[in-house]
Amino acid sequence: MSRPQEPHRPFFPFGNPLKMVLPKGSNLSPKLRALLNNFEEALAERFRKLKPSDREDVLSLTWMRFAMELLCQTHTDIKTIITELELPVCDWDDKWIDVYLDNSVKLLDICIAFSSELARLSQGNLWLQCALHNLDAYPSKQLVRACSSLDGWRQHISSKNPRLENCFTILNSLTGTLNLPKVKNSAKGNVLMRAMYGVKVLTVFVCSTFAAAFSGSTNKLVDLQVLEACLWADAFADVQAYVNGEIRNIFSSGRATVVKELEAVQISVKKLHPTIKDGVGVGVDPTEAEAVQNSISDLGKRAGKLSQGLDLLTNQVDDFFQILLSGRNALLCNLRVGGSVFDPKDEINNVQGQIVR
């Protein structure tokens, strides 16, 4: 459980980003201006959609899956922009390529850590299913075994995943490169850099909230201040303040986890465990037996919802991993064949063989 944090000051990776010089609109052709505006307006709408209508939805598995889905859509959009710009790789600044490749491998590492944690949480469902199986014929002589399974689940869930420890370091590194480079004599380059800036802001925000949820710590939850000139800036500031504020409130209130479906199961286990401990409950009167049966039924429903939510979120994280990997491989392929236009839609036949789990 983390201690209440000091008030968070705006984070400025390379000085004050509000003072950075954006490309003047007059330097962009109507086509390029429309391309950039359409991208930024779509990103603004996604930030608005990320703000839950109910505070209880913050960091539910449903919300997390939706956030990852929007992240996938935005990374796909940046690939489309790269293609529509018709900007050959040979015209890319070496620094752009280095940053793209460096950031992509870091995001792949984050995906692997998130997938590892989701797999660990899913493994905990085996304990729950064992407990529910032994409670299926309540009251029975299997209560001690059921109680042992619930103990095993609580110990498993409270353990730490070492793969998550590196996430905060990676996020700090990504945040440190969250700037908007100046591009001389290249209107297309300016559009590309500004679009990639928006993608990086969304990526750091989503991955930061996931890392906080999975690690049980808000120590590295970042408050970004972004360029006001971006069409999505206000929408981002609004959702960031809302979501980060709610996460900090949850931890400061002493709740064990911010993942809502997991918390719901913990509440059910906490309620049921004392009732069945050491076989207590066998031979109770019908009213008490019915109450216990209701608790068992409630645990079953919540465990099912948790399992389904983890599976759906795992699939979405895997989709993000594939998008990152295909884009990275497409760029490397184009570099090897002589610097043609970077088309991230190119398929790499051996993608599956390169995935490390």
From TrEMBL:
Predominant localisation class: membrane
InterPro entries according to UniProt: ROH1-like
Subcellular location: Membrane
Protein name: Uncharacterized protein
Family to which the UniProt record says this protein belongs: Belongs to the ROH1 family.
One CC-aspect GO term: membrane
Upper classification of the organism: Eukaryota, Viridiplantae, Streptophyta, Embryophyta, Tracheophyta
Protein's membrane topology: Single-pass membrane protein
Keywords in alphabetical order: Membrane, Transmembrane, Transmembrane helix
Transmembrane helix is among the record's keywords: yes
Organism, scientific name: Actinidia chinensis var. chinensis (Chinese soft-hair kiwi)
